[in-house]
Write a structure and sequence with these properties.
Length: 397
């Protein structure tokens, strides 16, 4: 579907997105820049993407009338969050191209299926996930308690609906494991061995309907309390041998899934006694990702541009990063840092720093842990980017 085209009924080429959060908002911006109209489906009247889109369908994600309306308005549809009901994507796919498809989104929604997929393609990707066991029944819990002490200390993670460290409990003993499973409501979980991480990184890949793939170099991510805090995106952010392996592994995963659209694959770097450490695949997001926000300001093509290109069947340009970058996530906490009351940060001082790019998502209410925006710092060289990032972080408390 070509940008700017008008169909027989006089309707302008329109791209749709399930979900109206900040990822949807940045997707909408990228689509509109190319001349597309956009439609967002999100029940929230104040959703960040709904507010900037040509059309905002305010229904639940599985509302039949809402889905019909979205399909009617749009020539192609994507999703901005992985917990969209797979059935909704299947319904849309009956009449419209949907990328990524319901099957791959379904895999990414469930850690058990996700890990099975990683295992199935380990031979081509060259990476495995952390040792783990599935706990779905009391009998499985008992078996793990009796036979899998190798997984302790570990992290018990719900199979579904986990994000930003939610739905996870760290456990040291078999007793703590039982308590944690009860605490999580006895739902399907995986127990994962706690690994000695030396770093974390992620790779963004875009794959087209024709199977062509482009990718960004891996970015190194720092998480605080399970939430992404800082992304380092520049040459030398991690050992180049590991970076090459991570990038190739992510591409292999995308091919193996027959994926269409932007995919983010997250990796752990673990201390395994080798020179640079070993690479372990953690999880994947079937969409643009927080760790790729720097591409908006530091690359000639952003992750959101690639999502638009992929779903619309446009050529996928290999992105080129033109500046080193550091991205700082702006959580709601920043708004309370100074006085304990909600108060805007000193943007004047932040924006006076060279190479700062402020992105706010239009969320009115700041809350601790809520992603309100991000700040990307670009500059002529890594040293100056690091210096400015430190100054900005200081101003933001
Ligand atoms: P989420 O869906 O919340 O992003 P993750 O599985 O990525 O869940 O876990 C969040 C963070 O917790 C990771 O980025 C990492 O810092 C830490 N973590 C998760 N699993 C492990 C593990 N097996 N060993 C060590 N740290 C882990
Ligand atoms: Mg994660």
């Amino acid at each position: 579907v070509f940008p700017g085209s008008v169909d027989a009924a006089g309707q302008p080429a329109t791209l749709g997105v399930m979900g109206g959060g900040q990822l949807g908002r940045m997707f909408v911006h990228a689509a509109q820049r190319l001349g597309y109209f956009t439609a967002v489906l999100d029940p929230d009247a104040q959703s960040p993407a709904g507010r900037v889109s040509h059309h905002h369908i305010q229904t639940g994600y599985d509302d039949p009338a809402g889905l019909v309306q979205l399909a009617h308005l749009c020539q192609a549809i994507t999703t901005e969050f992985e917990n969209v009901p797979a059935l909704a994507l299947q319904t849309l796919a009956q009449t419209r191209p949907v990328a990524p498809g319901a099957a791959v989104v379904g895999i990414a929604q469930n850690r058990i299926e996700e890990k099975a997929h990683f295992a199935a393609c380990a031979a081509v990707s060259g990476v495995s996930c952390a040792p783990y066991a599935v706990i779905e029944t009391p009998a499985q819990l008992q078996a793990v308690q009796a036979e899998r002490s190798d997984l302790l200390p570990g992290i018990l993670k719900t199979a579904r609906m986990g994000y930003d460290g939610k739905g996870q409990v760290r456990v040291k003993t078999a007793g703590e494991l039982a308590a944690a499973w009860a605490e999580l409501g006895g739902v399907a979980c995986v127990l994962e061995k706690m690994l000695p991480l030396t770093a974390e990184c992620s790779v963004l890949v875009a794959r087209g309907w024709d199977g062509r793939v482009v990718s960004f170099a891996p970015q190194r991510n720092v998480h605080v309390n399970g939430i992404l805090a800082v992304t380092h995106a520049y040459d030398g952010n991690m050992p180049s041998a590991l970076a090459t392996r991570a990038r190739e592994a992510a591409v292999a995963v995308a091919h193996h899934l027959g994926y269409v659209g932007v995919l983010c694959v997250e990796f752990f770097v673990v201390d395994d006694g080798s020179e640079h450490g070993g690479l372990v695949v953690n999880e994947m997001a079937p969409r643009p990702h927080n760790s790729g926000h720097y591409t908006l300001d530091a690359c000639d093509v952003s992750q959101f541009d690639l999502q638009v290109h992929a779903m619309a069947g446009l050529p996928l340009p290999q992105p080129r990063q033109h500046s080193p970058a550091i991205m700082l996530n702006l959580l709601g906490d920043v708004w309370f840092a100074a006085s304990g009351q909600q108060q805007d940060p000193d943007w004047y001082s932040v924006l006076r720093l060279p190479g700062t790019h402020l992105h706010l998502y239009g969320k009115v209410q700041a809350r601790a842990g809520r992603k309100m925006g991000h700040l990307t710092i670009t500059g002529p060289d890594v040293a100056s980017v690091k210096t400015v990032a430190q100054q900005a972080a200081g101003l933001l408390g």
